[in-house]
Design a protein that fits this description.
Layout: H1 2-37, H2 43-51, E1 54-80, E2 87-115, H3 118-125, E3 128-130, E4 137-139, H4 152-155, E5 158-164, E6 177-180, H5 182-189, H6 195-201, H7 206-221
Parallel strand pairs: 4-5
Antiparallel strand pairs: 1-2, 2-5, 2-6, 3-6
Helix pairs in contact: 1-5, 1-7, 2-7
Length: 222
């Protein structure tokens, strides 16, 4: 009996630790979006958000290496229904990858991906996929507004932005591997759900809703 009680207490502690972790991820994600929106040249970013199908935020994204490097991050996906304007999520995801070439040092950064179309969002609906290839990804444009002669809606499926907290050279995420974090999803929703169920059925609330409010407020002021 004592062993059962001890096991149950350990299970509760682990569950609380995971839930605290996902809540912390959401809070940091909100802070990163707020920081990027506060930049004087974030106008192009806001315009992309207005046209987007969703946003992916990795508050913790690490890269390190010398010639051969590795990368890892934990984040969330929020999906916008372009027909209704409703937002869904968060679905929790991890990013992994290896990189080659001119690179040196260690970097901790926030990584934000703006998903421009259904093709880009479809990858986040499944268990895993690789950035690049059929799902094109490019560095997000900076500036007070988008160039009028470029159709950003179809040039790439995903645009990436980073807020650096260290030193790195040769940063790139094309070829990075995205995998659904099923443990965090279950901890947050208290039931096993697929990323597709979350991103199509679970409307934003709490910290996720605050992120959406930041985005919508920035769009209304552009």
């Amino acid at each position: 009996m004592k062993k059962r009680i001890l096991f149950f207490m350990v299970f509760l502690m682990i569950s609380f630790s995971i839930f605290a972790s996902v809540e912390d991820t959401l809070k940091k994600a909100r802070q990163d979006v707020e920081e990027l929106l506060s930049k004087s040249d974030s106008g192009a970013f806001v315009q992309l958000l207005e046209m987007s199908e969703g946003i992916v935020i990795f508050p913790t994204f690490y890269k390190l290496g010398y010639i051969l490097g590795g990368q890892f991050g934990e984040g969330i996906v929020l999906r916008k229904d372009s027909a209704t304007g409703e937002w869904y999520g968060p679905s929790f995801v991890n990013i992994y990858g290896l990189s080659w070439g001119a690179q040196v040092g260690i970097q901790s950064a926030a990584l934000i991906l703006v998903v421009m179309n259904e093709k880009g969002m479809d990858g986040f609906m499944g268990d895993n996929f690789t950035l690049g290839g059929s799902v094109g990804i490019s560095a997000g444009p900076l500036g007070r507004q988008l160039s009028a002669d470029i159709d950003y809606k179809f040039q790439a499926s995903i645009y990436s932005y980073s807020i650096a907290r260290g030193f790195y050279a040769g940063m790139a995420i094309e070829g990075a591997y995205i995998k659904a974090d099923m443990i965090s999803n279950e901890a947050y929703y208290q039931e096993p759900l697929t990323p597709e169920q979350i991103l199509k059925e679970k409307k934003v609330s709490g910290e996720a809703k605050k992120i959406v409010e930041l985005i919508e407020n920035a769009i209304s002021k552009k």
